[in-house]
Inverse folding.
């Protein structure tokens, strides 16, 4: 009797805490899918890695024209796993290509960082705050 | 009926000069100046047409970094008075005049005159020490031109400008006076030098010699010494009848038209007499006005004179090098001696290497001043300052800087191939009661040391 | 906001900077007058070209002239500031990325720690220059509003840039301020004493030419001994 109540109470408390913690942790942490950009591979990086919030971009596209080919080239195996035609670029041009493609869309969309806001994408540590 | 002594009009008549001279110390002249109205419209137009991007940029771009301060002997000699900083001096005069576009009054113009002639000798040293290369000395020279045109020029320089316009020389020495003096000097020395000549208006010589009116009027021995040295070196030489005077005091006065007239006289003489080269006497501003700035006033677009124009030290170095002038090494100056680098032909024409070449022949213990050569300080009396009574006090303060430099060398003799430097050094020894230091032009030293060739007739005078 | 700042406003401020400085340089050269200034600019190229070059080069080297050597404090502060002030806008990573995207010109990027050191050096120099303006009796006689303005205009981009680099929490604020202050610098440069970016070279060349053609060029042997 006693032990069952105790276990039940613990279970309820834990689930309450677990569920409630969703509201206290940074909004993206649990729900958003963050991808670390790996193409091109950089041997000695001068900047921190780019933390790409895929879900945010998906939400944006879905609320507009739903066209994933904005970022994903169509391959015979389906949607590309890298941005557009980055793999077709010369190695030395891949970063400029990414810079250009990403910021061009941000400018058109009126949302997302410009090329001057380096550290919004090249995030130091695991700073994953919600962007306004 | 009082005569107009002070006005924008240059003096062009003997009467005009005499009227000015009669006004002792320029008392009436300066009194009239205080009532001289500024033609603001004309001033604005003058600035518009003559002050262009070089000067305007200099004034605009000054970073107020203060590096010009220590470069200026006036700043140093006046206990680092901030009002003596070159940048301050020019910004508060020409800079202000431009900012107000000529809308300035008489007392402002007189203040500009005080600074342009009493706080700057246009030695150009500040231009060497400015990171932007702003040559405040050049700007003050320009300002003098503006002030002269509007009548705000010191009394002695108004007279000096008039002298050149009337007599073709910085003093009232007529052409006849000049030729007479030449003859007189030959007579005076013909006992010792039987074949001595001062050929006047002889064509096709190697050297045409031009000199300083003050030598003719006050120190004719200098002319005789020049003649003897040409004689002893076997130089084929002449002096012109007109165009014989090279000082162009008009440069100090800001009388550019007067400068053009002077150069025209000299170049006419060159055209008449066709010498291979022209040699000037030991004078700094003569060289600057006639050889450095002169070609431009003389209409030479290239900035080069029609034939080579040498300063006396260049000629002396040449004849020493060529062996035409031989000096007795046992007669070298024994005591410690130093060398005055005259701004107008050392900093501003690079002749310091020739004076040093000469020193190696004439001095046993030559000590450089610190700093020296192009970096040397002005003697304190250049730019006409030696002669301006109104700024005598300021000049005497400025002399201290040079005296300190001389004393620091430990020298008791200063070799000074420049008239203004010579005067400044003479005066500083008097003002500061320094009795142990002597100074000399080159000519007397050379005369004393020279070995007379067998071919030159010489009778010992004893 | 940033799109506006880094888009049309950036282009505009860069254009004003470049065109403005070019105009000032051209006006300077056009305003030179061989007769009035008594310098035969178009003659004696064999002397005037090395004369102009050395007049510039010697002053760009620390202790390269007597002027620098006799003013060691001013010299150290100027070079400390200008090393960073010249290198960082051109070779900072980030700036190089933007430059490459806008013009295709690919400049090498400074390592981050070098950039930090240069920035701190420039900021210190600016602070010490301001202090020198306050303390030196010479500068106190000369100081004007513009002197303070350009110190501030130069300080702001360096300071905000440094803060953007090192402040994770306020990155957005600092980067916005950095772009704004950078663009303010660019826009005002041609109209203030910052125009020395080109006019230093013009003025120094002119004086070098003057001494080479007129004041000793043919008698001194060699260039003027700055």
């Amino acid at each position: 009797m006693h032990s069952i109540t105790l276990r039940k109470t613990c279970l309820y408390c834990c689930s309450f805490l677990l569920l409630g913690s969703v509201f206290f942790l940074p909004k993206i942490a649990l729900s958003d899918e963050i991808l670390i950009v790996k193409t091109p591979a950089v041997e000695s990086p001068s900047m921190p890695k780019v933390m790409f919030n895929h879900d945010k971009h998906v939400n944006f596209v879905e609320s507009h024209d739903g066209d994933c080919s904005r970022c994903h080239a169509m391959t015979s195996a389906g949607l590309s796993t890298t941005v557009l035609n980055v793999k077709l670029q010369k190695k030395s041009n891949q970063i400029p290509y990414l810079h250009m493609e990403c910021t061009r869309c941000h400018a058109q969309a009126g949302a997302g960082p410009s090329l001057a806001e380096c550290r919004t994408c090249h995030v130091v540590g695991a700073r994953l705050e919600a962007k306004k | 009926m009082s005569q107009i002594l002070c006005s924008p009009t240059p003096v062009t008549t003997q009467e005009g000069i005499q009227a000015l001279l009669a006004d002792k110390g320029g008392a009436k002249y300066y009194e009239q100046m205080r009532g001289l109205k500024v033609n603001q419209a004309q001033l604005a137009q003058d600035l518009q047409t003559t002050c262009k991007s070089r000067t305007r940029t200099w004034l605009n771009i000054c970073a107020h970094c203060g590096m010009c301060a220590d470069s200026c002997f006036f700043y140093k000699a006046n206990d680092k008075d901030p009002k003596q900083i070159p940048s301050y001096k020019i910004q508060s005069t020409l800079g202000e005049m431009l900012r107000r576009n000529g809308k300035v009054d008489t007392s402002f113009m007189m203040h500009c005159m005080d600074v342009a002639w009493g706080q700057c000798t246009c030695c150009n040293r500040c231009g060497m020490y400015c990171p932007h290369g702003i040559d405040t000395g050049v700007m003050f020279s320009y300002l003098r031109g503006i002030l002269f045109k509007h009548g705000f020029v010191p009394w002695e320089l108004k007279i000096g400008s008039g002298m050149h316009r009337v007599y073709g020389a910085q003093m009232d020495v007529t052409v006849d006076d000049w030729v007479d003096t030449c003859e007189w000097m030959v007579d005076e020395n013909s006992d010792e030098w039987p074949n001595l000549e001062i050929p006047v208006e002889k064509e096709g010589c190697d050297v045409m010699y031009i000199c300083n009116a003050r030598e003719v009027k006050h120190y004719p021995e200098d002319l005789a010494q020049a003649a003897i040295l040409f004689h002893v070196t076997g130089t084929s030489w002449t002096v012109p009848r007109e165009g014989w005077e090279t000082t162009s005091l008009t440069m100090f006065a800001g009388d550019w038209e007067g400068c053009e007239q002077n150069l025209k006289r000299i170049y006419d003489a060159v055209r008449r007499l066709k010498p291979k080269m022209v040699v000037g006497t030991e004078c700094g501003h003569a060289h600057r006005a006639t050889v450095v700035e002169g070609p431009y006033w003389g209409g030479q677009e290239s900035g080069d004179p029609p034939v080579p124009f040498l300063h006396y030290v260049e000629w002396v170095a040449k004849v020493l090098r060529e062996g035409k002038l031989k000096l007795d090494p046992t007669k070298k100056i024994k005591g410690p001696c130093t060398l005055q680098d005259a701004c107008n032909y050392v900093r501003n024409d690079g002749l310091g290497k020739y004076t040093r070449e000469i020193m190696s022949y004439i001095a046993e213990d030559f000590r450089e001043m610190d700093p020296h050569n192009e970096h040397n300080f002005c003697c304190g009396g250049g730019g006409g300052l030696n002669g301006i009574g109104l700024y005598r006090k300021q000049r005497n303060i400025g002399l201290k800087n040079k005296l300190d430099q001389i004393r620091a060398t430990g020298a008791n003799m200063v070799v000074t191939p420049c008239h203004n430097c010579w005067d400044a050094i003479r005066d500083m020894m008097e003002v500061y009661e320094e009795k142990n230091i002597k100074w000399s032009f080159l000519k007397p030293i050379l005369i004393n040391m020279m070995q007379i060739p067998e071919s030159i007739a010489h009778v010992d005078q004893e | 906001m940033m799109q506006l700042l880094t888009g049309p406003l950036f282009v505009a401020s860069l254009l004003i900077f470049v065109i403005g400085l070019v105009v000032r340089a051209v006006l300077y050269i056009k305003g030179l007058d061989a007769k009035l200034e008594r310098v035969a600019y178009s003659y004696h190229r064999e002397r005037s070209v090395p004369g102009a070059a050395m007049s510039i080069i010697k002053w760009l080297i620390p202790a390269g002239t007597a002027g620098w050597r006799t003013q060691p404090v001013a010299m150290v502060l100027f070079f400390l500031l200008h090393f960073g002030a010249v290198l960082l806008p051109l070779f900072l990573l980030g700036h190089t990325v933007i430059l490459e995207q806008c013009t295709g010109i690919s400049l090498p990027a400074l390592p981050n720690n070098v950039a930090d050191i240069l920035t701190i050096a420039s900021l210190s120099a600016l602070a010490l220059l301001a202090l020198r303006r306050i303390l030196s009796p010479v500068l106190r006689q000369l100081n004007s509003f513009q002197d303070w303005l350009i110190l501030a205009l130069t300080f702001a981009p360096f300071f905000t840039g440094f803060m953007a680099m090192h402040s994770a929490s306020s990155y957005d604020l600092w980067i916005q301020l950095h772009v704004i202050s950078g663009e303010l610098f660019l826009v005002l440069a041609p109209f203030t004493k910052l125009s020395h970016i080109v006019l230093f070279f013009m003025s120094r060349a002119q004086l070098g030419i003057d001494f080479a053609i007129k004041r000793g060029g043919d008698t001194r042997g060699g260039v003027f001994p700055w």
Q: What stands out?
A: Chain C has one domain: 2-7+45-213. The interface with chain A takes residues 2-3, 5-7, 10, 93-94, 97-98, 100-101, 109, 111-112, 164-165, 168, 171-172, 175, 179 of chain C (CB under 8 Å).
